[in-house]
Structure formats: C-alpha cells, structure tokens
Design goal:
The structure holds two protein chains of two kinds. By secondary structure, chain A is an alpha/beta fold. Chain A folds into four domains: 237 residues, Pyruvate-ferredoxin Oxidoreductase, domain 3 (3-Layer(aba) Sandwich); 187 residues, Rossmann fold; 73 residues, no CATH class; 100 residues, Rossmann fold. Chain A has 21 helices and 23 strands. In chain A, the strands form five sheets. Chain A has a seven-stranded mixed β-sheet with strand order 11-10-12-13-15-14-21, with helices on both faces. A six-stranded mixed β-sheet of chain A has the order 3-4-2-5-6-7, with helices on both faces. In chain A, helix 2 links the parallel strand 5 and strand 6. Chain A is globular, with a radius of gyration of 26 Å. The two termini of chain A are 37 Å apart. By secondary structure, chain B is an alpha/beta fold. Chain B folds into two domains: 273 residues, Rossmann fold (3-Layer(aba) Sandwich); 36 residues, no CATH class. In chain B, helix 1 packs across helix 6, helix 2 packs parallel to helix 11 and helix 3 crosses helix 4. Chain B starts with 18 loop residues before the first helix and ends with a strand. Classes of the chains: A alpha/beta, B alpha/beta. Chains A and B meet through helix 1, strand 9, helix 10, helix 12 and helix 13 of A and strand 1, strand 2, helix 2, helix 4 and helix 11 of B.
C-alpha cells in the first residue's frame, strides 16, 4: 500500500517507554527521507498507578511527504494495554461511564490498524482501566469500535519473554523491552530496513552497551514476527519527501532547538551565553540542554526562583553577556517587573515563554497560546518589548537566534513565544553551519565616547550604546528609575519622562525595519484569509490548502511586519485562528482599522485539528 | 588611590544627619584603600534609601528593583568573576522583599560584599516597620505597635551557612572602613551589617551603643586573634561559663580573668560566632521593655570570616573543566554529535 503520509501513534502506560519508542521511530523515518512531525502526550503525574487511565502516555508521529502537523487522527495505533486502547478510542470522554466510540472524539481513523498487546487485557488490566467486562473479546464491543477498524492481536509480552529467556535479564527488565518488540512490528509494517533500525539502536544505547544486544534481539524478533506470521495486513510504503533542501538533517524537539539557537547566537556574536532560570514545565528542557552545554561555554544559573532567574540574567547582561531566561506563563508573570527593569535600563535580554494552559497553574503539560497579551502588554508603565514567536519545532532554532540578534543589536528585551506543542514535538531540522547564519553586531559603545559616555546616549535609531564593567572610561550608573535623556542620572522632570517613554517606544518600533515582511501562503487570490501566529502554522497551512484560501502566519508580534494592514485589507473575509480566546485578534483590531476580524478559537489544551478548522471556517 | 576618585558628580540626597552619609564616605575610603580601579568595581542595589548609594560612587553601578539586588549581583559576579562586586541593601530590601535572594547568595557563597544598612525602618516609603523593627514598635503601619518577631540579620547569615559577618555603626568610621576592607579580602559572600540611624523616622534607634557616653560599656569591638576586652577602662572581658547548664553561656568577667576568650573569626564552627552576634540583641528586639539592660555588650567588627569555595569560582571552573575534556569546541562540531544524515 502506497501512502503520501501516515499517522502512527504509540500508546501505553507511562512506564512502557512510549516516548522513546516514538522518538526512535520518528528519527528512523526521518533518516529514510520522510518529513516528520510529532506530538508527545503524557500525563502530568510522574507515575500514575500502572495500567490506569490516568497513566496513559502517547506519542504520535506523522511521516511522509507534505507533512505540516502531527496529524489529526492515527492511521496506525499501537496500544500496549487496555487503558491505552480505551483512552485512544474515547478521547476526552475516556472517563465518562458508558461512553462509546464516537468519530469526533476518537483519536484514530475509522479504518485504522490497531496493534494490541493481548497479554495486557487480562481481568486485572480491564478492572484497572475501568471496563465493565472482564473478557478481552468483549472489550471492542464495549467500546463500540466499528468493524472497519482492523485489530491485530499480538501476545507482545509473551513473545518478548520468549525472545529474552536466555538473556539472563530479570523479569522486570524483560518486561521493559516490550516496546522494542512493538517497534519491530511497526518497522516491518512500514518496510523500514531492520539494519537501519539496529544501527540506530546501537547509537541510542552507546553508553549502555549491555543493553544493545537484548534490545536488538527483541526488535529483530518483533520485525520477524510481522514478517513470518501470516499477519493479515498490508505493509505500508510512505512517500519520501522531495521538497527538502539539500543538507545535513537531524530530528529535533522545540526546546532543544531553542537552546541551540541561543548557543549559535552567542558563538556568532562572540559573547558568552548566560541562562538564569528556574524549573517549570514545559520549559525546563531548555535549561537541561544548556546546563549540559558547558562544552560550548554556556553558563547556567539555576536560580532560587523565577524572579532570580531573570535577575541573574539581567546582571549578566549588565556585565556584557548574551543573557537569557526561560520560563512558562506563571513564570513570565513573576518576571514581569524585572523585564520592566531591562526595558528601562535598555539592556539586551531574551525571555523564552514556553506557553502552557493557564491561568494560574492551569494545565502544565498542555499547549495553549494564552500568554500573548501578557507578553506584549503585561508590565507596569509604558513598557514596550519585542515579541516574536516560533512556528515549528525546528524553527525554534531560527527564532531563538533571531531573538538574540534583535536583543543585542537593539538593546531591548525580546520575548520569544513557543509552547508545549512546539517544545516537546519534534521536526526535521536542517543543521546550518555557523558561517551561514546572519551576522550579529551587538550595539557596543564606540571608542570616541570614552570619558564622555552616558547611559542615555543613543544612535540615530534611538538605540543606546552598551558599555560594560571592566571598560575604563565608561563608568556609569544604570537605573530602573526614570533617567535624564542626556546625562543618564535620575530625573523626575515631566517633559523628560515623556521624551524617554517615546524614545524607548521608538527603539522598539524601528525593529520593524529589520524584520521580514508578512508573506501570504496558500491561494493568495482567494477572498478568505486565515490568520495565525506561533505554533499553529502547520495546522493552518494544511487547512488553508484544503480550503483553497490564503494564510497569513505571524512570527513577529511586536512590532508587526510593516505590510500587515496592507495584506489583511486585500481580503473580504478575515479569520484569526488561535488557541486562546482571541488575543491576537484583539491586538490586530487595535493595530489595523476598518477590518472585520472573525475568530476561530479552541482552548482545550490541545493543538488544532485540521479538519475542525476546515469545518469551522466553512461555517463562518 | 584617593577616596575622591570614587565620588561621583551626583549631589548626595540622603537627609541631613542620616547615617547613610557616613557609610557613603566610609565606602569611598575603603574602595580607595582596596585599590581596585573604578572601572572594575560594580555596585548593585535594590530600592530604598541605602540603594541610592551607587549614584554617589564613581564606579559601574546599577540601582535596580526592590529586593532583587542580590540576584542581579549574583549574575554580575558569576558571569564576570574578575569584577569586584558590592551590593547595597537595607533591612526592608534585603530581609523582607529580597529575603529569598539574600539567603541564597549567602548559601552559594557568591564572592561579593554586601552592606546591609539596618535602620529598623522603611525610610523611602516614609516610616513603616521593617523585619528588624523591635516587637511592639509603633510606626505608620503599626499604630498600635507591631506584633511581629523581628529578624536578627546575623542569625540569618549563619543559618544560611554564611562565611563572613561583620557589624559596624554609622558613627564609627574607622571600624566601618576596616570591616569593608576585610570584607573585600574575604573570598565569598561578606555581609556587613551597618547599623545606621534614620533621623526622620527612627531617630536614636541604636543609641544604646551609638552614644559616645555609653558605647564603650555597651559594645565590644572584636578583633581576630585578640582578647575580647571592652569597657571605658578596658577592664571587662568575655568568657564562657560552663556551669550554667547543658549549654555554655557567655559572661562578663574582669579583664585579667584567665578565662577571657581570644576572638577566632576563622573558626569553622559558627556556634560561638552566633552567640557573640546575638549578644545584647534583646535591646533591639523588644521595644516594649525599654528598661531592658543587656548584660552582654553588642559585638562589633568582624565576627565571622571563614573560607569556603565561592559559587563564581565553582561555576567557572566546572565550565573550564568540561570544555577542556570535550571534543566538540564549536557549534558546527556540536551539530555533528547528533544523530544526523544527509539528504
């Protein structure tokens, strides 16, 4: 069977290694030339009781050509236990008593292939997953799974035990290898060459060589099981992408791409990268990655709280480093006074907000775009900062780099918005050489200002000069208080204050001349324009293709691209699609007059589904 | 160097008679004695009267936001350990809104000098009680007297495993300068509690020891390696009395008593340092009992001065160590460490 792209979902208990399996399969597919997009979905609890509905962890991959999203629904599902099958079948209604299959909620397609581990459908398993029945055969009826779905029962646990019976491993370790058997079956199903998979596994376990042989054995046995038994399914061939630019590729998660973008920027501008941060889901992986990058000279301070995270970064920036802080919504709230200090002191600073469901603690592991107005406006006083947003896991690299470039060249805080979906999802990334990346020229103080320096001195673009401690003849006092527009000392003069407010605004406004213009994707000649920002680009792109309409997707939020109003005004029907209650629409209404902005919003802690957007837009 | 080299061109706006004037002058003298050039000296502050200090010093300075000076100073020193970093803070800035940063910069032992101006009042917001105001203290925000138990800063410092603690008085310039110089010599977080008078909102709060008449009787200047002797006639000494119960107790004995202690600021164990730092503090923690006459003198000078690895050294050394061992040195080499393929 030949397909353009296929959505595969691995689902099991959070201890079953589904994230690892999914990651391995997606990397393997990427190596073979497929475009990939992934969506991990795991519970907030670190370890929910085994086999329960609350402990189900999933990993979805879309692979093939023309891949923009992780896919709405799975073509192939691997369900490692009874709880996983239930959660995947009933979707958000998994804990509604008596709920049955319903196409809208189900996370796989009507004609999906589902591989189940029959050894995890025993009486106890069914009881833990809150089934009425205690018979595996009755599970499908109880869930109302339609006939069109093809169930492939495999005794994965037994076969794994059999495979490893001579390995000398204990029972617990053997059971942990079930995921490799499942991966073997899926590799066979997709005609992935087993030697590539084995090679990949050897790389993965390079630091634990004892684990290589048993894992390779289970993987191979799983593969051969599919190949040798009369499994009544057709193998699937997925198209190899032809759109990919020539180059060296890897698959990368958004948080890691963000961290690497910061590193690249630091190396590019010859400054040391400093991260002050505090652990917070889903941003922490940025800190983890950078803490491990001392080889690249990165300095990480795990601070005592969110405020200290940003404040240590401000200290490092004052002293001349490329300084960053990473956080999520609640942390951004805590940091806002300090971000205001960086605005007032006109110091470069990159603040990464990996958005999650809010308000308050909200939904820490789920995705949302609800921090937009907080990022743009959420500070006391007239307090402009640059706000940009990444739109794919891989381009988190590009926008992290861009955030640093804007910050040090314009002496301003830059807030980079990503979210859970981008942070944890992976995509194919063409690794650039440092030399290919744009130059970064920090706004260093010119030598002729020695002895005459003031913290208020600006260039023709309203950008002040960066003099740092250790430089003789540039001693100065910076402040969070209003300062005199010439001397830099404390000033409460009314006219001076207004002048300074405008100077800081002008500085942020002129960034518009340094960012690309808005580009229209899809059918530019359509009457209808979809508008989105940040992580929804893939879904909106796919929806615009299906609707044969235009899409304007924003990576630059403040300032907006120069041609924003001109582009939007070309269209009769303008629909702003966001994972919030209409924050970008609100912003656009204040910036672009005379346009009726319609809205499509979802606030469910999940990424869009292309089919829901298409349906909704048709009815607007 | 000369103290005048450290004076900025800014008019000093502390109230006439404020103790901060004296600390400012002491700082300029101490910085001149220390001899680190103005351009390698950084003074960080938060918000409050004392936090105006950076404006009056001709060094690099950053007057930041309320309570956060400690975190910002940590960032400066850790990222640029070659700089000499001072932090100016008050009892509100440091012990209330900035309390968390305060204990953590001490715990980490960031190599900086922290002048903690303790006037037991919020001055810049015009007279509210602070975390060091005595219990029962009447202020604008405690018209019937505070019901709170105050902090004793030395206890916080030692509780956070501090390596340096000194106490000085605004009216005692030589001791203040000496404590500042010793703080700079000490590698690690050095806290100097500067007892300052707020002439407007809390005048005379330290009179017990600040009054010329009684200072010699009510305080003792501790010097490392010297006997703990005090009194106008140098006739009293401090000793440990082991007969009082389970815990030994500090007592006043005649100066020639063989039991008189020799001050050892370098002692790792903070128990005795804490006992010394707590001497006479009841005079400042319970205003309702104005008649209280502490038996023991208030300790001034460098009470604790021990060595421990600094955070900034540890962080920078670890980076150097990892860099030395690592094969990938550049971004391009780093990319090649990932699983990658050509297409």
């Amino acid at each position: 069977m030949q397909k353009q792209n296929v959505v595969v979902k691995f689902c099991g208990d959070s201890g079953d290694g589904m994230q690892l399996t999914g990651n391995m399969f997606s990397s393997l597919s990427a190596i073979l030339g497929n475009e990939i997009s992934t969506l991990p979905d795991y519970p907030a609890e670190i370890r929910a009781p085994q086999g329960t509905l609350g402990g189900v962890s999933g990993f979805q991959i879309n692979l093939g050509a023309g891949v923009y999203t992780p896919g709405d629904k799975a073509d192939v599902l691997v369900a490692m236990n009874a709880a996983a099958l239930k959660v995947c079948t009933l979707g958000s209604k998994f804990n509604v008593p008596g709920a049955k299959f319903n196409e809208a909620d189900c996370t796989y397609k009507k004609n999906a292939v589902i591989v189940i581990d029959t050894d995890s459908f025993g009486e106890k398993d069914l009881e833990k997953a809150l089934y009425q029945t205690r018979q595996m055969e009755e599970v499908f009826v109880e869930l109302g799974i339609p006939e069109s779905v093809q169930i492939v029962p495999v005794a994965i646990t037994q076969l794994t035990k059999e495979s490893l019976k001579d390995s000398g491993m204990d029972n617990k370790s053997i059971l942990k290898s079930r995921n490799m058997f499942a991966l073997g079956i899926v590799c066979w199903l997709f005609n992935r060459p087993i030697d590539k998979a084995i090679h990949f596994l050897e790389g993965k376990f390079a630091k634990k060589p004892a684990l290589i042989a048993p894992n390779v054995k289970v993987l191979t046995d799983g593969y051969n099981y599919g190949n040798n038994t009369a499994m009544n399914i057709n193998t699937i061939n997925v198209e190899v992408s032809e759109d990919l630019q020539h180059g060296t590729y890897t698959s990368i998660a958004g948080n890691k791409a963000t961290a690497w973008g910061l590193i690249a920027a630091a190396h590019k501008c010859g400054k040391r990268l400093f991260l002050g941060s505090y652990p917070i889901t889903p941003a922490t992986d940025i800190m983890h990655e950078l803490a491990g990058r001392k080889d690249m000279g990165v300095m990480v301070v795990q601070a005592e709280d969110e405020i200290a995270g940003v404040c240590t970064a401000i200290g490092a920036s004052f002293a001349g480093d490329l300084a960053c802080t990473s956080t999520s919504g609640p942390g951004l709230s805590l940091k806002s006074e300090a971000v205001g200090l960086a605005v007032m002191a006109e110091l470069p600073l990159v603040i990464i907000d990996v958005q999650r469901g809010g308000p308050s603690t909200g939904l820490p592991t789920k995705t949302e775009q609800t921090d937009l107005l907080q990022a743009v406006y959420g500070r006391n006083g007239e307090c402009p900062a640059v706000v940009i947003a990444a739109s794919t896991s891989a381009n988190c690299f590009q926008y992290a780099f861009e955030a640093c470039k804007i910050a040090v060249e314009n002496m301003t805080p830059v807030i980079l918005m990503t979210d859970t979906y981008l942070a944890n999802g992976t995509g194919l990334w063409r690794m650039p050489k440092l030399a290919e990346l744009p130059e970064i020229k920090p706004q260093s103080v010119p030598a002729e200002l020695k002895g005459k320096y003031s913290v208020s001195l600006r260039d023709e673009n309203s950008i002040r000069y960066w003099a740092t401690p250790g430089m003789e003849g540039y001693e100065h006092r910076n402040i969070g208080l209003e300062r005199d527009s010439l001397k830099g000392s404390i000033s409460t003069n009314p006219e001076n204050h207004e002048k300074m407010v405008k100077a800081r605004q002008a500085k942020v406004d002129q960034v518009v001349n340094k960012i690309p213009e808005l580009r229209v994707q899809g059918n530019a000649d359509s009457d209808t324009l979809l508008i989105g920002w940040g992580s929804t680009e893939g879904h909106l792109h796919a929806a615009a293709n299906e609707l044969n309409c235009a899409l304007a997707h924003f990576n630059y939020i403040n300032p907006l691209p120069k041609n924003t109003a001109e582009v939007i005004k070309r269209y009769k029907k303008v629909i702003v699609c966001e994972l919030n209650n209409g924050q970008f629409a609100t912003l656009l209404r204040s910036k672009v007059q005379g346009v009726e902005f319609k809205q499509y919003n979802e606030i469910m802690g999940q990424p869009f589904a292309v089919e829901r957007i298409v349906e909704a837009v048709k009815n607007l | 160097m000369e103290a005048s080299q450290f004076k900025s061109d800014q008019y000093v706006r502390f109230c006439p008679g404020c103790g901060d004037h004296a600390i400012c002058a002491a700082l300029q003298q101490a910085m001149a004695k220390i001899g680190v050039p103005t351009y390698n000296t950084v003074v960080i502050s938060g918000i409050g009267c004392s936090s105006r200090m950076p404006h009056y010093l001709n060094t690099y300075g950053f007057n930041t936001i309320h309570g956060r000076g400690g975190a910002i100073a940590t960032g400066v020193k850790t990222s640029h350990p070659e700089l000499t970093v001072w932090q100016m803070s008050g009892d509100g800035d440091c012990l209330a809104i900035g309390g968390n940063h305060f204990i953590h910069e001490i715990r980490r032992n960031v190599d900086l000098n922290l002048c903690l101006f303790n006037n037991r009042i919020y001055g810049l917001t015009k007279g509210q009680y602070s975390p060091t105001s005595p219990k029962g203290f009447v202020s604008k925000s405690s018209p019937f007297g505070t019901v709170e138990r105050p902090f004793i800063p030395a206890e916080l410092v030692m509780g956070a495993r501090g390596t340096f603690f000194a106490r000085t008085l605004d009216v005692d310039m030589p001791t203040t300068v000496d404590c500042m110089v010793k703080a700079q010599e000490h590698k690690g977080a050095s806290v100097i509690e500067c007892l300052v008078n707020c002439v407007i909102f809390n005048n005379g709060t330290h009179n017990w020891i600040a009054d010329r008449e009684t200072r010699a009787e009510h305080s003792i200047l501790l010097k490392h390696g010297e006997k703990m002797i005090f009194g106008a006639n140098k006739d009293k000494g401090l000793a440990l009395d082991y007969s009082a119960g389970i815990m030994p107790k500090l007592i006043v004995v005649p100066a020639d008593d063989p039991r008189v202690l020799v001050h050892d600021a370098k002692m790792e164990d903070p128990t005795l340092h804490r006992m010394l730092a707590l001497m006479g503090q009841e005079k400042f923690t319970d205003v309702l009992n104005a008649e209280i006459q502490p038996e023991l003198p208030v300790a001034l000078g460098v009470i604790r001065d021990v060595e421990a690895e600094t955070y900034n050294d540890a962080v920078n050394n670890q980076i150097e160590e990892v860099r030395g061992k690592s094969k990938a040195k550049t971004f391009d080499e780093l990319c090649m460490t990932l699983e990658h393929w050509d297409m």
